[in-house]
Amino acid sequence: MLHKTGLVLAFSVASVLAALHQGPTAEVLNKDYDFVVVGAGAGGGVMASRLTEDPLTRVLLIEAGGSDFENLNISVPGRSSTLPMSAFDWNFTTMAQPGLNNRPVGYPRGFVLGGSTALNQMVFSRGTKDDYDRWANVTGDDGWSFKNLLPFIFAVDRMTAPVDHHNTTGQFNPAIHKNGVVPISVEGFPLEINSRVIDTTRELAEQFPFNLDYNSGNTIGFGWTQNTIHDGHRVTSASSYLAQAINRPNLDVVVNTRVTKVVSVGREQGKPVFRGVEIAQSADGPVHSLKAKKEVILSAGSLKTPHILMLSGIGDAAHLTALGIKPVVNLPAVGQNLQDHVFLGNSWVANSTNTLDDLHRNSTLAAEALALWKINGTGPLGLGAASQFGWLRVPNATGFFRSLGVEDPSAGETSAHFEQIPTNAFVSKTVPLPAEGHFFSIITAVVSPTARGNVTLNSTNPFDAPLINPNLLGSPVDVAIMREAVKAARAFVTAPTWSDYIVSEFGVFANATTDDELEVYIRKNSDTVDHPVGTVAMGQGTNAPLDSQLRVKGTVGLRVVDASAFPFIPSGHTQGPTYILAERAAHLVRSSL
Q1: What's the gap between Cα 358 and its chain centre?
Q2: Which domain covers residue 364, as residue numbers?
Q3: In this structure, are 242 and 366 located in the same domain?
Q4: Residue 286: which H helix or E strand, with range?
Q5: Is-catalytic flag, 177?
Q6: Is 573 a catalytic residue?
């Protein structure tokens, strides 16, 4: 892993070597590549890096966004809230969501080298044993089981010292972390609430147990958050995987360029061979064609990958025909099965002035914090989303879900139904920060949802956004899970450690006491955690567009390596599982050469 100084040097040297192109140059258009990788997020970064470890394998990585992955707002963890609806975001908006009282919501996706690893909240979680074992079961491929994925899991992350170099004993389990590519760390700036959160795991241990390391394969309980932060700086797939590969002469990276479709270049064994791509920089600009000798790998994410496939004639034949697109491969499940986690901020008035609220209100404090961060990455701007996370299951899960007429939607006992994220600031995606006051919040999230949405075409113009319907809270089961999550958040602050800290519930949250009132509150204030997955899922049968090797069924030379390939959403944050899936995908591709 290169440190920041080495990374800057690597990319500056790469520019001299012309490995990084700001558009489709003549050099790129006239060169032969074995693989064309579309999208430079977690999946694409891994694929470009791992495939070019073989010096005889030539790879072109195409990114729709720019190359400014070290922009200050990206590098500073505490500035992550500035990234949605910025130049680094695709700026998608969902369709009106019936489960959210017909509100559309913003749907941030990374539009820069690093993809959504440059835009997210930097939480690193691997997922659970049961999550991956369910993948293995649904695909019929035991290679996706937790046990068999361990070499790829260990290849991704490595624990590093937090920026303040405090003693981390008891904050994670060193035995389950190896020397992976992506540096991660626990918090490096102490918060007043940290000791209270950990005290709660002792005072209310039965409901809120302590978990030394949620990346063990069992997430249940509260523990210290592991973030993709190193020396106080955000870590992305660009600053980790691509930094290792960018000086290799067998890798070219092109930015500011969209793949508008994949193209059939012939037939093999009666199937179309999709080893061609069309690229453009604008809707009215020139369109160029490129071919890969071996494969095109789509790593454009859960929204753009199905979008590109459908524009290419791969999808539901009826939907494509209705828009005037000739179907090439009829795969009705392309764009279906969209799953996401649901977000809700719940806030209390805190008996403290030592919260992060003033940092978001006071420009002088913010400037002082930025000056400190620029010196050595320390201070509050080096923090991720929260210092501790909790993953929990509803009480008496079997009876709870039986009463709702469904099976338990989680993958198993190691997988949570909901998540709790405590932080010492006001948190809401629907209500602005109050002009005064200090707050404690617990974000609650549905992490084993039952609702399914979809991505469909809005037009045949590849520069038009697709229609995005994550169907947030589209199931009464998901509302019931969120209701239990809010009740658990209220129970959390009844621990004795909070008695002198919590003053009262804040705003409309305080008025939601009955189940019916809670449902009204939940639907009015929920949003997305920004974890769309599953739209080109691997599995068996016609409901899965990919086989267990991530190859698009009915085609030759076309593979998908991103979170759209997940058959089920992990009961954790999604960047870690995307890295892990891509590590195995790279192994599968290299083994087939």
Answers
A1: 29
A2: 188-224+342-448+473-525
A3: no
A4: none
A5: no
A6: yes
